[in-house]
Structures are given as C-alpha cells and as structure tokens.
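### Sample
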Amino acid sequence: MHTRVFDNVLNGIKDKDAGVRVEGRTNHILWMTGNLVNCRYWLGDILGLDHKDPHEALFKDAKALDPNAEYPSIDTLKKEWHKISAPVYERLLAVTEKELDEAYPFGMNVGFVEENRLNMVGMAMDRESYLFGQLGLMRRILGYEGMKYDMDETIPY
C-alpha cells in the first residue's frame, strides 16, 4: 500500500517545486522524499536485508535539511524507492514471529518501548505515514490537487 501512496503523492510534482520551502521554514519535497526512501532502507535493515541507501549521508537518522546540500531528483528517489521496496515486501512476507521478537537496539531508552524488530518495523511504518502526510500537505500548499488513491495493479509489492 505504501508504494502506491508514494507514487500517488509524488505524481505530477514538478522539479521546480520539489525544492520549495514554505517561508524558508519547512522541509522541501526532495528532503521529505529522500527521508522516506531512507526510512524504507532502514526498514530493510530492521528485517535483515543488506541494502544501503546511496544517499544515506543526506538523510540517515532523519538528518535535518541542509539548505546548501544538493539533493537527488524526484526521479532518482523514485527509482531508489522501487529498488528497495520489492525486497522489503518479500522479506515482510517471510519474517517470522521469532525474528520480530529479536532485540534491535535503537537507543531510544524509553522504558515502555521494547527495542525489538517488531517495534522498529512499527516505528518505520509510522515514520513513513507521517512523511506521506507532510507530502500531501505540501502538494496542496504548492497548488497541486490533493493526492489520489489510484491503484497500479502492475506493482506486485
């Protein structure tokens, strides 16, 4: 489902708009999209995949937007999303309850959040949903119509 939302929320966004920051205060679409892709790579890591985000230096650990950095294009980020999403989907189908219960230290140090793979999968999915909401809002602020929920039946993940 998130792959379809990813494609839909970015549908029609022009390159000239992807780097716009509202009143110089918000993150721009390129940063949000790159952060989403990085989050998907993190989800893969949680699940034991050995894939690395080629743009990790710009986005790892929700690194703050650097107004002087050169961010990858929307098209580049879309390709990275689809590259990592298929193996993540396959791994989600195969992961066992025992694997999800394994420790996955994250350094949150919150007593009521057990740092295991299951909770980190939930955290990654929550982060993705948050960023989708931000992107949906940016669409409207920049004058685009609201995101559609079109389904691309050719995408199996």
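The chain is about 55% helix and 0% strand. This sample (DinB-like domain-containing protein) is used throughout the tutorial notebook.
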